[in-house]
Amino acid sequence: MKNVFVLIFSVFITTILIPVLLIQRCSVIEPKIEKQQIVESNKVVHVYMHETGEIKTLDLEEYIKGVVAGEMPAAFEMEALKAQAVAARSYAVSRMRAYGKNGHPSHPGAELCDSVHCQVWLSKERLRELKSKNWMKNYWPKIEKAVEETKGLIMTYDNKPVDQPLFHSTSGGRTENSEDVFAAWVPYLRSVESPYEQEAPHLTDQQDISIATFVSKIKKKYPDCNINASNIKSSLKILERSDGGRILKMQVGNKILTGREIRELLGLRSANFKVAIYGEKMRFTTNGYGHGVGMSQWGANGMAKKGYTFDEILKHYYVGVEISKMK
Ligand SMILES: [Zn+2]
Fold first, then answer.
1. Residue 214 vs residues 131, 204, 247, 268: alpha-carbon distances, Å
2. Which pLDDT belongs to residue 5?
3. How far apart are the CA of 117 and the centre of ligand 1, in A?
4. How far is the CA of 169 from the centre of ligand 1 (A)?
5. Which of 6, 13, 73, 147 has the most beta carbons within 10 angstroms of its beta carbon?
6. What percent of the chain has pLDDT over 90?
7. How far apart are CA 263 and CA 286, in angstroms?
8. Across residues 33-56, what is the average pLDDT?
9. Ligand 1 centroid to residue 167 C-alpha, Å
C-alpha cells in the first residue's frame, strides 16, 4: 500500500508539478517589461533654473512632463513620446542617485537643471507663453498621458539606471557608437540601423558656403593651416568615416580635423557630410541632424508609426537595456 502512495506521489511530481513549475518559470523569462525592484525612496527632484538662479523642488513625474514637452515635438506618436519619457526619467533617476542632496557640481543643491546641460525642462507657465492655446488643449494632455502611462519606468543596464540616454533628431539612417562621437565607450550606445526616418525634415540637407568664408573660418581657428582659395580642391580629403557615416578624420591642408570639429565650425546639421566645389562655392550635403548617438527621435517616431511600442523602440536604440519599474 505504502509503495502505491509513493508511486502515485512520484507520478504527480514528475507529470504535473514539475511541468507546471517549468511552465510558470518559462513564462517569466522574457516578459515585456522586466519588473526589477528598484527602490527609490526620494521621488522629488531639485532643478536649477538658469534664468533666475532659483532651485525648484518638483515631483519627479511632473518634472518628466516638462522635459518631454521641452525635448520632443508633441505632435509625435504616443509611443515615441513614451520612449522619450522613459529616457528622461532614467536620466533623472541616475542623477538623483549620483548627486542626491548635494546637487551637481555645476549647480550645487540641484541634481538637475532646466537647460541642455542636463535636459531641457519647461514649466507649464512657460509653455503657456511659448505655445498656442490649442497646443495646451491638444498636446499637453497627450504629454501627460505619455508620462502617466510609463509612470515609474526607467531603462536599466546591469541593474543600474541608464545614466546617458542620449538622443538626437535624425541619425541619417544609422546611429553612431558613443566613442566615435564623444570620448567614452558606453555599452548601450552602439551603432544601429535607423530605418524609419523618411519623414524627418533634415534627413539630408544642403548648405552652400563660399570658399573664402570656409578658408577664413578654418584659418581663424587653425592659423597654421596651409589651405587657401587656390589649393582648396587638392587640400580636402575625407580619410575615415564611422559606422554611422560621420567623418572621423578629414584632411584639411596640413591638418587632420574631425567631422565634429568641421560641423561645429561651419554650423552644419551633422558630421556626416559630403563636400563638392562649384566655382566659388562649396556645397556641404549633410545626412542626419545632431550627434547621432543613442535614440533618433525621428527614427523613434517612424518606428511608432510602424506599430512598435515604446519599450521596443528603446531596446532598439539602447542596446542591451531592460525596462525596469521603480518601486
Ligand atoms: Zn545641468
1. 37, 21, 17, 12
2. 53
3. 4
4. 20
5. 147
6. 83
7. 10
8. 79
9. 16
130-156: pLDDT as tens digits: 999 999 999 999 999 999 999 999 999
Domain boundaries, the chain: 36-195+291-325, 204-287
C-alpha cell at 249: 578624420
pTM, 2 dp: 0.83
140 to each of 67, 75, 102, how far by Cα in Å?
A: 12, 10, 32
85 CA → ligand 1 middle, Å = 18
Distance 279 CA to ligand 1 centre (A): 45
- pLDDT above 50: residue 30: no
Q: How far is the CA of 115 from the centre of ligand 1 (A)?
A: 6
| pLDDT given for residue 33 in this prediction | 59
Report how far ligand 1's centroid is from the alpha carbon of 69 (Å). Answer: 17
What local confidence, expressed as pLDDT, does residue 138 receive? 95
Cell numbers for 325, please give them. Answer: 519599474
Cα of 57 to ligand 1 centre, how many Å? 15
Task: Give me the pLDDT at residue 19, please.
Answer: 45
Q: Is the dihedral of CA 46, 48, 53, 54 positive or negative?
A: negative
**What is the separation of C-alpha 73 from the centre of its chain, rounded to a whole number of angstroms?**
14
CA of 61 to the centre of ligand 1 (A): 18
